[in-house]
Amino acid sequence: MSTEKSDALVIRLADFSESSRVVTLFTREQGKVAALAKGAKRLRGPFEAALDLLSFCRVVFIRKSSGGLDLLTEAQLTRRFAPPGRDLNALYGGYYVAELLDGLTEEHDPHPDLFDAALRTLDAIASGSDPRLPILQFELTVLKEVGRLPELDACCACHQPLELGAAARFWVSQGGLICPACSRPEYQHSEIQPGTVALLRALADDDSTLAQRLSITPRQYQELRRTLTSAISHTLERRPKMLALLKF
Amino acid sequence: MARRDFHPEEHPFGPAVGRLVNRLADLPGVGRKSAERLANHLVSCSKREALELADAIRDVKERVHRCQRCFNLTDGELCPICRDSRRDAAVVCVVEQPRDVASLEATGVFQGVYHVLGGRLAPLEGITPGDLTIDSLVERVRNQGVRELVMATNPTLEGDGTALFITNLLEGSGVKITRLARGIATGSVLEFANREMLADALRGRQSF
């Protein structure tokens, strides 16, 4: 058993007993951690009501060598996720970040860059600006971090580089874009405009300034959404629950 | 040495006591040792005392159900709060669980009536509006002259999200929607209040 300290984001809470909870945390240093928080519902104690969904906390936990649940011993709140005004879509955007972190990462597999990206995304959503772009960018970051980012630079079939300005098709089961020459009517793929391919590359490179400079048309949003929903659902092996509620 | 948990059939006092210990140990907050102590008490107390407990449990399970109006627990058609004509039926306090009604009633401050949602919206756990009594609340507001809704869902992200969902649903209905105040407790010391409580107290400050 070892005591660990880390910055953490609460991504799931489940009641364990009258006052205790099992808390799933996405930590910067340890990745996803499931820990028992004894007395988590009590106002007084080592957690001080810090353990709410999407709260950003500094935590101390005892890691169990037996493979059982870790034991959370302390949590100090840094900040809560507070969606702006009466915006349910922003709240659902926050839930979606939690769903992706929980569904696509493994326990004790750290991804510090993903942790920072999650905080950035939640801050952007909480700021009241349009949540669509930060969420798209976060989806690409998650896919990149877990090694499932679709191939966006070369054709998945012939491996030739895809030229800038050329239309392409997205074939999720082959892992990315294919060029028009390799496309076949029997393949299950969707067409993507050259502008959308450029946007996907910019967002995947975390080039937020470039992405913000580009004006995104409703059609491009639609294509981005369709492509990323397809890639996320393929990796998660189910359609994310929050996509049914989020308005894009 | 680790304590040995008996299989009911192997309990030294016989399988009947073993089964009782197991059932008691299933109750929230009761561990194996407490269950043994309670079982020993029930074995040694008078038959009348033990059977009164059994009858009380049977009564609760057979007679207690949800109030037809507010979904609080009751053994009649309407709960005592909904039946009480001295309560202001135009002011409805919305809570997640019947135990929240008990907590608020213990304050003796609230003179309105309640609406128990039966939980909170948690889309990540698959809990949707259809799983709660939100439709009945909306109908109550629209048809029973409700003047004010006091949102007393838990002050968590999901509790606030549930209150927000209901507020958006009732937009334009003309009902006044308020929520419980947040901040520091009377009798506490500012120096020891946490940052979150102080921030809530500052945001929710009132005129003297």
How would you describe what is shown here?
The complex is a heterodimer of chains A (248) and B (208). Chain A has 248 residues and is α+β, with helices and mostly antiparallel strands. Chain A folds into two domains: 80 residues, OB fold (Dihydrolipoamide Acetyltransferase, E2P), CATH 2.40.50; 167 residues, de novo design (two linked rop proteins) (Up-down Bundle), CATH 1.20.1440.120. Chain A has six helices and eight strands, in the order E-E-E-E-E-H-H-H-E-E-E-H-H-H. Chain B is an alpha/beta fold and 208 residues long. Chain B contains eight helices and six strands, in the order H-H-H-E-E-H-E-H-E-H-E-H-E-H. The termini of chain B are far apart. The mean pLDDT of chain B is 91. At the A-B interface, helix 1 of A face helix 7 of B.
Q: Could you say which structural class the secondary elements and strand pairing of chain B correspond to?
A: alpha/beta
Radius of gyration of chain B: 23 Å
| Cα-to-Cα separation, first versus last residue of chain A | 45 Å
Shape of chain A: elongated
Q: Strand portion of chain A, in percent?
A: 15-25%
Task: Provide mean pLDDT of chain A, rounded.
Answer: 89
- How much of the sequence of chain B is in beta strands? 5-15%
Task: Tell me the Rg of chain A in angstroms.
Answer: 20 Å
**Would you identify the regions of chain B where 5 or more consecutive residues have pLDDT less than 50?**
none
The greatest inter-chain interface is formed by:
A-B, 23 and 16 residues
Name the poorly predicted regions of chain A: none
Helix proportion of chain A? 25-40%
Number of helices of chain A: 6
Largest beta sheet: strand ordering of chain A: 1-2-3-5-4
| CATH homologous superfamily placement of the largest domain in chain A | Recombination protein O, C-terminal domain
**Most strands sheet of chain B:** 4 strands, parallel
Helix and strand element order of chain A: EEEEEHHHEEEHHH
CATH class descriptor of the largest domain in chain B? Alpha Beta
**What is the count of structural domains of chain A?**
2
